């Protein structure tokens, strides 16, 4: 081989080696097995979504009897912060004599929660009552919307607030099935869900995207250019562009290793996605090496961290505050803290 050919080969190898042998960043694994538990009051379960107010107090959590509770520290414990009008009017809502599955359509089931820091108002996505709001002092929540156009809501689910404008982005998971029939949404591959926007100035709701398969959690991006939407089925996260050359486009952000619920911004510009259940594996005979209950996505959708838990534990929310992770579940009777 001549000197020139050798030089060219050396240059070519120098250009190729950094990319060819550059290993991908390892995915961090964070176990939640030893997380601190805050037990919910007797008779209620399911802190499906968590929120913190503008003073950093909380968490606030919607639970199975239709209330939003506030954690006031170990001295005060949990207190009632908000509720629907029906909660005080219908005795079954407070009696706890029948399962909540039979009363939630009457008493309400708060799911997505988020404060608008400028006013202190808490916005509530109630699966049955619709989009609701309560002031910073709590009390009976006001119903803001129960339909978009001529189409009523059937299953209001995830929610986030643009902290600059007060606009609310939320999902209606199905145009056919209410929450208590959420299994049918999956079994029948229902794709009638919608991504919606409540305009804080006009007080009107508009449909941003229709015909979606089980849209669930929503998060406004850190730069407010798009919103991320978790689709429980088919285990994916999409983003709807609000601004820029892609405005109005709906594109895939990430394929997820499980069935997602809520999505939250993390402290790095990415997102925490809670997983209700892992994907079915092709090799179902061998036990999984680890039980995933959540993942953290980078800005580009890459999985950069996994949350694991004991078998049987599921999460519906992962909220990051002051470097700590607060964990909510639709099925458990406590709020976790990592």
Brief summary:
The chain has five helices and 28 strands. The chain has helices at 3-20, 85-89, 91-95, 100-107, 182-187, and strands at 28-31, 36-39, 50-51, 60-62, 68-71, 78-83, 110-116, 121-126, 130-134, 139-140, 142-145, 147-148, 151-152, 156-161, 168-172, 193-198, 205-212, 215-220, 226-231, 236-241, 250-255, 258-265, 271-278, 292-297, 303-308, 317-321, 324-328, 334-337.
Structure overview:
By secondary structure, the chain is mainly beta. A hairpin with a 6-residue loop joins strand 16 and strand 17. Helices cover 12% and strands 42% of the residues. It starts with a helix and ends with a strand. The chain has a five-stranded mixed beta sheet, with no helix packed on it. It has helices spanning 3-20, 85-89, 91-95, 100-107, 182-187, and strands at 28-31, 36-39, 50-51, 60-62, 68-71, 78-83, 110-116, 121-126, 130-134, 139-140, 142-145, 147-148, 151-152, 156-161, 168-172, 193-198, 205-212, 215-220, 226-231, 236-241, 250-255, 258-265, 271-278, 292-297, 303-308, 317-321, 324-328, 334-337. It has a single domain, classed as Neuraminidase. It is built from five helices and 28 strands. The model is unreliable at 1-23 (pLDDT under 50).
Keywords:
338 residues, mainly beta, five-stranded mixed beta sheet, Neuraminidase, 28 strands, disordered N terminus
Q: Count structural domains.
A: 1
Strand line-up of the largest beta sheet: 1-25-24-23-22
Task: Please identify the top-level CATH class.
Answer: Mainly Beta
Bulk shape: globular
Overall pLDDT? 91
What percentage of the residues does DSSP assign to strands (E)?
35-45%
Backbone structural class: mainly beta
Number of helices: 5
The number of distinct β-strands equals: 28
Q: Under CATH, the topology is which?
A: Neuraminidase
Largest beta-sheet characterization = 5 strands, mixed
Helix coverage percent: 10-25%
CATH homology superfamily: TolB, C-terminal domain
Unreliable segments of 5+ consecutive residues:
1-23
Q: Under the CATH scheme, which architecture would be assigned?
A: 6 Propeller
Distance between the termini: 61 Å
| Radius of gyration over C-alpha positions, nearest whole angstrom | 22 Å
Protein name: Protein STRICTOSIDINE SYNTHASE-LIKE 11
InterPro entries: 6-blade_b-propeller_TolB-like (IPR011042), Strictosidine_synth_cons-reg (IPR018119)
GO molecular function: hydrolase activity
Signal peptide: 1-24
């Amino acid at each position: 081989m001549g000197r020139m050919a050798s030089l060219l080969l050396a240059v070519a190898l120098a250009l190729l080696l950094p990319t060819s042998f550059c290993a991908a960043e390892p995915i961090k694994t964070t176990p939640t097995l030893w997380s601190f538990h805050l037990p919910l009051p007797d008779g209620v379960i399911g802190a499906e979504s968590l929120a913190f107010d503008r003073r950093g107090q909380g968490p606030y959590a919607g639970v199975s009897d239709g209330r939003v509770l506030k954690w006031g520290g170990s001295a005060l414990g949990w207190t009632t912060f908000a509720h629907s009008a029906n909660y005080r009017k219908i005795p079954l809502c407070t009696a706890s004599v029948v399962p909540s599955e039979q009363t939630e359509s009457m008493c309400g089931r708060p799911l997505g929660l988020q404060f608008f820091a400028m006013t202190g108002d808490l916005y509530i996505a109630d699966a049955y009552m619709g989009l609701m709001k309560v002031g910073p002092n709590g009390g009976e929540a006001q119903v803001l919307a129960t339909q978009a156009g001529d189409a009523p809501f059937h299953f209001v689910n995830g929610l986030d607030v643009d902290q600059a404008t007060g606009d609310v982005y939320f999902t209606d998971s199905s145009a056919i099935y209410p929450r208590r029939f959420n299994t049918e949404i999956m079994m029948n591959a229902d794709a009638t869900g919608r991504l919606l926007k409540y305009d804080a100035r006009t007080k009107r709701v508009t449909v941003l995207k229709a015909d979606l398969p089980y849209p669930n959690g929503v998060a406004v991006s850190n730069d407010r250019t798009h919103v991320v939407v978790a689709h429980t089925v088919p285990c994916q996260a999409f983003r709807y562009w609000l601004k820029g050359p892609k405005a109005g486009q709906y594109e895939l952000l990430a394929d997820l290793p499980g069935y997602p619920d809520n999505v939250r911004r993390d402290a790095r510009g990415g997102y925490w996605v809670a997983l209700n259940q892992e994907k079915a594996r092709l090799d179902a005979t061998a036990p999984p090496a680890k039980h995933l209950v959540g993942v953290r996505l980078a800005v580009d959708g890459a999985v950069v961290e996994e949350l694991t838990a004991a078998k049987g534990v599921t999460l519906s929310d992962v909220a990051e505050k002051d470097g700590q992770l607060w964990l909510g579940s639709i099925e458990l009777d406590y709020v976790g803290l990592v």
